[in-house]
Amino acid sequence: MPYPKGRKPSTNIPKLPAEMPAVDNQEESFNVKRSHSSPQGAPKKRSAFVDITNATKTHGSNHTKKTTKKVQKSSTVSVKNEANLKRLGSLTSEGQAEKIQLGKSGVEELKGSLTEEPAQDQPRQIPEDFDIDKEHGSDCFMTAEYAKEIFDYLKGREEEFVLQDYMQKQPDLNQDMRGILVDWMVEVQENFELNHETLYLAVKLTDHYLSCTVVMRESLQLIGSTSMLIASKFEERCPPCIDDFLYICDDAYKREELIAMEINILQALKFDINIPVPYRFLRRYAKCVRANMETLTLARYVCELSLLELELVPERASRLACACLLLALTTKDLGGWTPVLQFHTGYTVSDLEPLARKLRSMLACPSDDKLKAVRSKYSHNVFFEVAKIPVVDIQKLEEALK
């Protein structure tokens, strides 16, 4: 659980083993965030611009000379412009060019066009029964008029971040090692009281970096903690500092190593880290059926458990969010996939069938019982103890998928 403000985090956080085991076959807290001061002291302050500004002062004599040259150049240009205008005037003839003159009638027409009322906005192309944003039409912070376009854009952007099973390219890593790392990242997110979007983005950054870079197991925790740092800078208003992540790693790495890894990850991803995550889609899609907070939390629990599964890494974030919501709705007897959900998500029940069965199997038979961070987290009453809800019956799920 979160630790008091101004104090070091609890040492109960399990550290990743120095040497990862080699296996052959294998809403949130309502507490106030702590001040992310460094456990070893705050970084030195400095002026933001003085250190990087080295502009020299301009001498008066040089400035005068430059001004004189500019005046001479401007006079020369004006002469050339007059000559060009005369030449254009001589070349102008009927059929080639017409002089545009704004007469009295033109002025009146212009005034009339300026005094006309602006054209009304075109009606939105969303059926009234499917418009889930109309209740927020007067709230400028909800951007109701752009909400669907925003999520359609995020859904289309997913295609730029599709991953495949990259573990075959990692000779020194395996699936279990990744699971241990993600389980540890869940605990870091909970103890630092970070947003859930930060956790999802950090896991995405880790997967994308591992998919294009061969690493040794000794660097795996460094990659995970650095991904959390980058994601915190992207998602948090008050992100933890570097020293916080060094402390949470039990000082296994140096500050220079973490900064160097940050550069490597950003360069490997070409600084494009705005990766769509399923957590955002879940909030949007749950609104389509007016799901209560307990149902939404259950879907988030299933979604967060999926972060541990290497098999689900290639799944699109929007499709994964839909399958988690469908499983939660079926578990709570709130109906199946509705036309409103199909309209806003773009997925039919047949599109979600295989993934929904995988998620149900994941809940019933976890791939690793030792990874308990997510289940322990969602067993708390803050999250409605959704981890203790029995898994939906397979026959009940099959009926919902028909």
UniProtKB/TrEMBL annotation:
SMART domains: CYCLIN, Cyclin_C. Residues 60-72 have a biased composition (Basic residues). The keyword Cell cycle applies. Keywords: Cell cycle, Cell division, Cyclin. Residues 276-392 form the Cyclin C-terminal domain. Belongs to the cyclin family. Cyclin AB subfamily. This is G2/mitotic-specific cyclin-B3.
